[in-house]
Amino acid sequence: MASSSTCSSSSSSHEDAWNIECFKYSRRATLRSVVGRPDGGAGLAGERAVVGGWVRSSTVVRARRASAVSPGSSSPSRTKPEGNVQTTGLTCTEVLMSRVPLIRCIARLMAGGIGAAAGAASGGSARRQAIGKALVRINDGSCVADLQIVVDSSLCPLDQVTATGACVLVEGKIEQVEGTAPQYVVQMRVEKILHIGPVDSEKYPLSNALPSSDLIRSYPHLAARTEAVASIARVRSELIHAVHAFFQSNGFFHVNTPIITTTSAGNRSKMFRLTGLFSKSDNDIRITPEAVRAAIKEKTKQIEALKRSESNKEALEAAEQDLQRAKALSRQLEQSTESSPDDLFHCPAYLTPCHTLHLETFACALSSVYTFSPAFQAEILDSDRSLAERWTLDDAISCTEDCVKSLCSTVSKDCSDELKFLSSSQAGDATNSLIGSAVSSPWEKIKYTEAVNTLLQVTDKTFESKLEWGMPLSHEHLSYLADDVYKKPLIIYEYPKQLKPFYARLKEDFKTVSAFDLVVPKVGIVACGAQKEERMDNLTSRIEESGLQIEQLEWYLDTRRHGTVKHSGFSIDLERLILFVTGLKDVQDTNPFCRTKDHAKC
Amino acid sequence: MASSSTCSSSSSSHEDAWNIECFKYSRRATLRSVVGRPDGGAGLAGERAVVGGWVRSSTVVRARRASAVSPGSSSPSRTKPEGNVQTTGLTCTEVLMSRVPLIRCIARLMAGGIGAAAGAASGGSARRQAIGKALVRINDGSCVADLQIVVDSSLCPLDQVTATGACVLVEGKIEQVEGTAPQYVVQMRVEKILHIGPVDSEKYPLSNALPSSDLIRSYPHLAARTEAVASIARVRSELIHAVHAFFQSNGFFHVNTPIITTTSAGNRSKMFRLTGLFSKSDNDIRITPEAVRAAIKEKTKQIEALKRSESNKEALEAAEQDLQRAKALSRQLEQSTESSPDDLFHCPAYLTPCHTLHLETFACALSSVYTFSPAFQAEILDSDRSLAERWTLDDAISCTEDCVKSLCSTVSKDCSDELKFLSSSQAGDATNSLIGSAVSSPWEKIKYTEAVNTLLQVTDKTFESKLEWGMPLSHEHLSYLADDVYKKPLIIYEYPKQLKPFYARLKEDFKTVSAFDLVVPKVGIVACGAQKEERMDNLTSRIEESGLQIEQLEWYLDTRRHGTVKHSGFSIDLERLILFVTGLKDVQDTNPFCRTKDHAKC
Q1: Which ranges of the sequence are coiled-coil (chains A, B) (predicted)?
Q2: I need a labelling partner for A281 at 20 to 30 A (CA). Which of A377, B59, B118, B162 fits?
C-alpha cells in the first residue's frame, strides 16, 4: 500500500506541481518527509510545501539589509542561515546577545527576564510592533528533528508565531542553509500563514524550552509535545507494530480476551472491582438506606413519645404502621444496594490482572494465538502485555527470545533517531550497545537452583534481602545476575512451585514447575512464561494449594477435561521492554497517561 | 520475516527430511499448511508430518481385507477413501448404516442411542475392544477445512481418538484419496500417536457435531472449537491486522489512551465505576458506618433510659462520652468510606466509554495518531474501536472510507474460506456481494437534512418512531436509507448539534455540527466521526449546554488554550464491522467472551 501521495493543496492558488510527499488526508507534508530524510531535506530545496506543527522555540531577528527578503519574492535556493545564528533549543538568545549588542538590548526589552530566554519574542501586547522576521523551530511530532521556518513580520504579528506551544500551519518554499556548520540543512521561507493556534506564554505550562520531568508529568495531556515524550510515543508505536508483525508472520491469530472478568487467578486484593451504574447513586433522587434508617429512628422516638403520653391511640397506630412500612422499605433497600453493584454480572466483576486463563481457551481451539491487551493491578496501573501460546517450555522460551530480539532489532533500526535523542538525555549510549548485544548474541539460560547457588556464593556484595532455595529472587538479586555476572539477557527457569501461579506445569520432582522469567540488564523481568499444567489432578491440587476457589475455575478446568493439550505461553511487559530499549529509568514515563496521579487529572 | 520453517521433529526417530512447512515453535504442521493449500494438499502426498487438533467427528470402520494397512508399512501414496464413505460432519454414521448391515448393528451397539450418532465410537469401557480403524476428522483452528486421519486400532484404543472434542497429536504419512468425488483430497495414515487429550463424551457439552448457537453461547471457553466461532475469530484477527496495516502504511502512530479515566464526556449513567481495593470490603474485619450508627442508636436509648431513671450520674456521663466518641468515629468512617473506593484516583474513576478526548491530546502533538482499545458502556459490553485523527471533516470522511474499504477488501481476500463457510450457514452469499460493491463503488454522502426530507416523503412504509428535523434517526430509518433507498454504504453528515457530543465543530448556522455517521446495509452505523471544535468560546458554551462539569474538562480545554489546531477524527466499531463482513446478525456472536452473560462465567 502506498504510504503517501504527492501534495496538491486545495486551498492554495498555486497551480504548479508540488513535489514533496504529504499526508494523504491532511494535504500537509510531515516534517519526517522533509527534515527526517537522510539528506536532511537538501534534495527538496526550491520546493514549495505546506507544513505545520507546534512551536518549540524561536528567535526574532531585525531585518538586516543583506539578508532581508520579502515574502513572495524569488528567494535564492541557497541562503546564509538567518542572522548566522547557532540556533540550538536553549541557547539561541544567549548566542545572539553575545554577538550583536543591539539585538541584546531588544531581546532584553522583549524577553522581560531570564525565564523567557528561549521564547524571546513571545507574549505581551507591547511587542506587537516587532518588525523584522522570526526564526521559528516547529515540530509536528513525526520525527525528532525540528524544521526552522522564517516568518516575516509583514505576514503576521510575530508574537503570534514565536510563542512556544503555538500551532502554525504555513505554506512556503524550502531553501538550503549555508554557512559554517549550520544546525539545519534546510529551512522554510514562509509565504502564507494558513492557521495560527495562539498560546498565552504566561499560562502555557510547558513554555520553557526544556521543562523538567516533574513538570511534564503534571501535564499528561500536553506531555507529548515535548521531544522526550514524543520520542517514547514513537518507540512505543513501533514496538506495538513489531509485536503484531512478529506474531502475524509466525502464524499466530490475534484474539480479544475479556478485560472485565469474574474470575481471579491470584490475589484479589490487587484487583479493581467494578460497581454498577453510576446513575443509581449520583443523578437520581435517592432514597438511601441511611435516610430510611433515620426515618425509622425518628418514628420510633415518636411512638415512644406517643406511648408515654397515651393521648391519641389512632396517632399511635398510624405511627406504628408507618414504622412497619419504613422497616420493609429499609429491608428492600438493603437488598437492592447489595445486589446492584454487580447487577450486570450476577457476581463480583473485576478488571482482569492477567489474560493467561482466557487466552488458553483460545489456544485450546485455534492453536497459536496472542492477545495485546491491558492488564490491571490496583497498585501499578495498566501495563500492556502480549501473550502467546506454545507447546512446551522450550518452545515458549525460544519464541520469547525470537520475539524480544525481533522487537529490539526493529526498534533499533526504525527508531534510531529517537533512541539517540533519548540516550543523549539519559545514560549515554550504553543502552544502545546493550540492545545490540541482546539482539546479536545468544542469551544465558540457567535454572532457578543454579541462580540461587551462584548468589549464595557471592562474597563481593551483601544483599539486603535474605535468600535460600524456595524464596523469591529480589530485584537486587536479579540485577546482580544480569548486570554483573552475565551482562546480558538471562532466562531463569524451573522455579519452586510456590513462586509461580497454579497453572505452571509441575515437574517430576513435585517441587519445581516449568516456568521462566526473562531478566534483562538495568530493568529486571520483562517477560515471563510457563508450560501450562495439562493434567487434571495436578491442576486441581495446585488450585487448592493456592487457596483459590475451585468453583470459580470450573470453566477453566473444562479445557483440561475435554481434550487437554500440552501448551505453554508467555507474556511480555511492554512498559518494561520500553525501558530496556530506551534506557528510561521509570516505568511511569513510558506513557503519559499511565501514571497513578494522572488518572486523577484526565 | 520468514513465516515458517521446514519441520524437523526432535522427538521423532525418522532421520529423513520433512518437506512440509510447520510451525516454528511447536514442530507441528498446521492444517492450513496441509489441507488449506490451494491444491487441498495433493502436492504433499507421500510426505510425513506431525499434525494435531481436536476431533470434529469420526467413524469407526471394521478392517476389510482390501484396505487393511498396518502402521509403519509402506502405504501406497494413492489409496481409495477409507470404506468409501461420504464422511460429512453429521451424517457419516447414518450413511454407513444404510450401506453395511453389519456395521449398523455394531454402531447401534456402540452408540447407545441417537444422541451419540456423530461420535459413534466414543466413550464407555465396553467399547475399548473395537478392532479396525477410525476415520477421524480433526481441526486445529488454523483453517476451515478438517484433515481426516486414519488410526488403526493397533495404535490405541479407538474410543480415545474418536470422541468429539478429544485432542490428538499424531505422526504419519499424507496420502491422496481417490474415488468418485471424495470429500477430501488427502488424508493422513497415522503411524504414531504422540499425545491424546481424552474427553468424556457424556460430559463434553459440545459433543454434538453441530451444536446449537444457544449451546455454544453457554460455553464461551469452548466455543472457539466450533467452526463458526473459529471462523469469526480468524476474520477478527485478520481485520485487526488490517486496521494496523492501514494506519501504519498511512503514517499514523499507534498510541495507548487510558482505559481508566476520571473524565466523562457524556452520560455517566452508562459508565462503569471502579471501586478501590477488594480486600478492604471483603477480607478484613470491618467496622462499618452502619455498625457505628447502630451503636449510637443503642447508646442514645441507654442515655434516655438513664436520664429517665436519674439513678446514676456517672453512668450517664460515661454514656454521653461514649456517644460523642461513637459520633466522631461515625463522621470519620463516613468520610473514609466516601473516599476509599477511589483512593487511588482521588476522585470517582470509570472505565472509559470513549477514547476521543484522550486521543485528541496525542493528535495535538504527534499529528496523526490512532488507538485500538476497548471502550466500555454499562449496557453493551466492550466494543473495540479504532480511532484516528485528521484535519477536517472531509479528510475524516475520506480516511474512514479508505480505511473501511481497505479492511473489507483485505478480509474478503484473505478470509474467503471463512466468509464462504459463514455465509453458507447464514444468509446465502448476499453478504459477499454487499462487501464487493462496498469496496468497488463510491459511497453515497448526504446531509442529515436531506436524509430527514427523504424519509418524510416516504409513502410506501410507515415508521414506528416519529421523525422531524432535530430528532435522531432510528435504526429503522437508517435501515430504510441504506437497505432500500441507496443499497450501499452511506455517509450521513451535518447533524443537529443536540444529536452529537460537545466536541463536534459548530457550523456557521449555529444549529448543525461537522459530524458524520457511516451506515452500512443490514447492520447500521459502523463508524462515526467529527471535526473537532477548536474554538474555545464555542467549546465552553457547548460543554455548558450539554450539562457537563467544565472543571472536569479543564485539561481537555488546555489543548485549545495552548496552540489549538483544526483536527477531526473517527472511530470504527469493530464488532459491527465484523457483522457487516461476515453477515452475522447478532453483535454478541463476534467474540465468545463479549456477552453480558458470559462475564458471569469467566
Answers
A1: 299-336
A2: A377
- Name the stretches of chain A with pLDDT < 50: 1-16, 65-78, 83-128, 276-287, 335-345, 380-384, 595-602
| A541: contact with B, CB 8 A cutoff | no
- Inter-chain CB proximity B244 and A244 less than 8 Å: yes
- Coil/strand/helix, residue B395: helix
What is the spatial distance between Cα A119 and Cα A209, in angstroms, rounded to a whole number?
A: 8
Predicted pLDDT at B169: 92
Separation of alpha carbons B411 and B241, rounded Å: 10
Give A282's contacts in chain B (Cβ within 8 Å): 268-269
Lowest-confidence range among A160-164, A458-462, B99-103, B580-584? B99-103
Selected residues 13-52 of chain A with any CB under 8 Å from a CB in chain B: 23-28, 30, 32, 52
Tell me the ipTM for this assembly: 0.71
* Rounded Cα–Cα distance for residues B486 and A575 (Å): 48
Residues in chain B with CB shorter than 8 Å from the CB of A215 are none
User: Would you state the cell numbers that stand for residue A533, as one nine-digit string?
Assistant: 499444567
Superfamily of domain A228-273+349-599: Bira Bifunctional Protein; Domain 2 (3.30.930.10)
Strand arrangement, sheet containing A260-261: A260-261, A350-351, A272-277, B272-277, B350-351, B260-261
Q: What is the pLDDT, as a whole number, of residue A97?
A: 34
Q: Are A383 and A374 in contact (CB under 8 A)?
A: yes
Produce one character per residue of B523-542: b if its CB has 16 or more CB atoms within 10 Å, e if not.
bbbbbbbbbbbbeeebbbeb
Interface check B215 vs A, CB under 8 A? no
**B480-487 contact pairs (CB < 8 A, 24+):** B480/B455, B481/B451, B481/B454, B481/B455, B481/B519, B482/B519, B482/B520, B482/B521, B482/B522, B482/B524, B483/B521, B483/B522, B485/B454, B486/B444, B487/B521
Lowest mean pLDDT among A355-359, A581-585, B149-153, B271-275: B271-275
Rounded to whole angstroms, how far apart are CA atoms A10 and A1? 24
Q: For the domain bounded by B228-272+349-599, which CATH number is listed?
A: 3.30.930.10
Of B524, B529, B528, B530, nearest in space to B576 by CA: B524
Cell matching residue A40 = 536532511
As given in the structure block, the three cell numbers for residue A363 are 489456544
Name the residue ranges covered by the structural domains of chain B: 5-210, 228-272+349-599, 278-342
Is residue A512 a contact partner of residue A497, using CB atoms and an 8 Å limit?
yes
Q: Which candidate, A592, A212, A54, places its Cα nearest to that of B559?
A: A54
Question: Which of B164, B282, B300, B367 has the highest number of chain A CBs within 10 A, making it the mutation to test binding with A?
Answer: B367
Tell me, what DSSP letter sits at residue B473?
Answer: P
User: DSSP characters for B399-422?
Assistant: HHHHHHHHHHHHHHHHTHHHHHHH
Percent of chain B whose predicted confidence (pLDDT) is above 70: 69
More confident residue, B117 or A545: A545
CB contact residues (below 8 A), chain A span 142-171, against chain B: 142, 165-167, 169
Amino acid residing at A442: P
Please give the C-alpha separations between residue A330 and each of A266, A281, A336, A365, in angstroms, as whole numbers: 36, 16, 10, 50
Region of poorest pLDDT, from A336-350, B120-134, B246-260:
A336-350
Chain A partners within 8 Å of B206 (Cβ): 562
What SS3 string covers B522-577? CCEEEEEEEEECCCHHHHHHHHHHCCCCHHHHHHHHHHHHCCCCCCEEEEEEHHHH
Taking one residue from A and the other from B, the number of pairs with CB-CB distance under 8 angstroms is 393
> Taking CB atoms and an 8 Å limit, are A558 and B367 in contact across chains?
no
A241-277 residue pLDDT tens: 888 998 888 888 988 877 777 666 555 556 666 664 4
Q: Which residue has the higher pLDDT, A110 or B499?
A: B499
* Domain made up of B5-210: CATH architecture: Beta Barrel (2.40)
